[in-house]
Amino acid sequence: MDGGCGASLRLNDYQAEAQKTDRAADKTLAFPLLGLFGEVGTLLSVVKKKQRDASSYIGYAPHVIEELGDVLWYFATIAERAGIRLSDIGHNVNHGLQDWSDAGDPSLRFADLQKPAEAVSLEPTKAFANTLLDLAGEVGIVLSDYQAGRITNNQAALKGRLVAVLRVLVRASDEAGVTLGEAAYGNLHKTFDRWPEKFVYPKPFDEDEKPFEQLPRSLVIDVFEREVGGKLYVFQQCNGVNTGDRLTDNALEPDD
Question: Are 77 and 22 in contact, with CB atoms under 8 Å apart?
Answer without folding.
Answer: yes
